[in-house]
Amino acid sequence: RLPTLAVLGATGAVGTVMCELLTGRRNVWGEIRLLASERSVGRKVRCRGEELTVQALTEDALDGVDVAMFDVPDEVARHWAPIAVRRGAIVVDNSAAFRMDRDVPLVVPEINPEQVANRPRGIVASANCTTLTMIIAVAPLHDEYGLRELVLASYQAVSGAGQAGADTLHDQLAKVAGDRMLGARTGDVRQAVGDDLGPFPAPLALNVVPWAGSLTDGGWSSEEMKLRDESRKILGMPDLKISATCVRVPVLTGHSVAAHAVFATEIDVEGAREVLRNAPGVIVVDDPAAGEFPMPIDAVGTDPSWVGRIRRTLDDPRALDFFVTGDNLRKGAALNIVQVAELLAEDLTRP
Ligand code: 2RA
């Protein structure tokens, strides 16, 4: 029997991409069950060539599920993941509820696939979208050169804040488009945008906002702390020095990260390019003379992390600077969850 898969949060920004991915990937699933909150119940979603009706998330709806992919808010995951496990499912969770728990592995199949087996609570976590985009490029360089320190700056798309984030940018762009009177000409769009900021603390149209998530100790944002904590856990380096500045930019899809990585050994930049070219899940686009560098408009709708602008730091032969961009809804979320679920399916169907 092929395992039964449940998708929780199937109608959200990430859930929609999960269903698209399940349509395009090798079919390892028996029944696929789409579960969501009351307001989405009854909606029809095409998945794997079938038209599936979204069902209400109830305890009974989880019966018979082997693997449950969760893309729901932290508090919903905290409540429902243990219930799904009690009903017999293994949960792959995209929220931040369990990522840092010692007895929950944080799995990126290109980096630490063996960790899926180590799941005493029946929960496997998937990392934050910014972490995933960047770590896919950093991990192979670490394997080759021994990472010592990371300094990161992110350029994060509005869809990282869900459908509401994407809708907010569209609405704000419509308000400022062609508006030369209310400040849009000089760049102060506050009057044109008005009070509707959606999930953001400031206007995103024609602006950048150096903030994502909530405030934590010392002035760091929760997003910056996730980058630090999750990278350390995925790489198995609890003392790695990392600092990040996370910035929201007026891009619909595609998180980017400018990285400064310091290693234990001297870097030969062509060697580093070769390491990245051979790394799973990475595409190198690095020919600035020809105008070729990775951008969100290239990465959107694709699976890999796109890496370019690779250069050795001028003042430190052990350090590398580069730019990486990836689709935050695919490898940053849905794709990683689907890949982890497929590892579990393989495990469950092994004779
Ligand atoms: C964001 N990484 O971009 C966070 C959550 N998906 O807002």
TrEMBL record:
UniProt domain Semialdehyde dehydrogenase NAD-binding: residue ranges: 4-119
Pathway per the UniProt entry: Amino-acid biosynthesis; L-methionine biosynthesis via de novo pathway; L-homoserine from L-aspartate: step 2/3; Amino-acid biosynthesis; L-threonine biosynthesis; L-threonine from L-aspartate: step 2/5; Amino-acid biosynthesis; L-lysine biosynthesis via DAP pathway; (S)-tetrahydrodipicolinate from L-aspartate: step 2/4
Cross-referenced SUPFAM superfamilies: Glyceraldehyde-3-phosphate dehydrogenase-like, C-terminal domain, NAD(P)-binding Rossmann-fold domains
UniProt cross-references to PANTHER family, sorted A to Z: ASPARTATE-SEMIALDEHYDE DEHYDROGENASE, DEHYDROGENASE, PUTATIVE-RELATED
Similarity remark: Belongs to the aspartate-semialdehyde dehydrogenase family.
InterPro entries listed in its UniProt record: Asp-semialdehyde_DH_CS, Asp_semialdehyde_DH, Asp_semialdehyde_DH_beta, NAD(P)-bd_dom_sf, Semialdehyde_DH_NAD-bd, Semialdhyde_DH_dimer_dom
Binding site for substrate: 156, 248
UniProt-listed SMART domains: Semialdhyde_dh
CDD domains: ASADH_C_bac_euk_like (cd18131), VcASADH2_like_N (cd02316)
Subunit structure, interactors included: Homodimer.
Highest taxon listed in the record's lineage: Bacteria
Keywords: Amino-acid biosynthesis, Diaminopimelate biosynthesis, Lysine biosynthesis, Methionine biosynthesis, NADP, Oxidoreductase, Threonine biosynthesis
Biological source species: Micromonospora qiuiae
Active site per the UniProt annotation: 129, 255
Catalytic activity, reaction form: L-aspartate 4-semialdehyde + phosphate + NADP(+) = 4-phospho-L-aspartate + NADPH + H(+)
EC number assigned by the record: 1.2.1.11
Function description: Catalyzes the NADPH-dependent formation of L-aspartate-semialdehyde (L-ASA) by the reductive dephosphorylation of L-aspartyl-4-phosphate.
Chain positions recorded as NADP(+) binding sites: 11-14, 39-40, 159-160, 328
Stated name of the protein: Aspartate-semialdehyde dehydrogenase
Annotated transmembrane regions: none
UniProt binding sites for phosphate: 99
Pfam families: Semialdhyde_dh, Semialdhyde_dhC
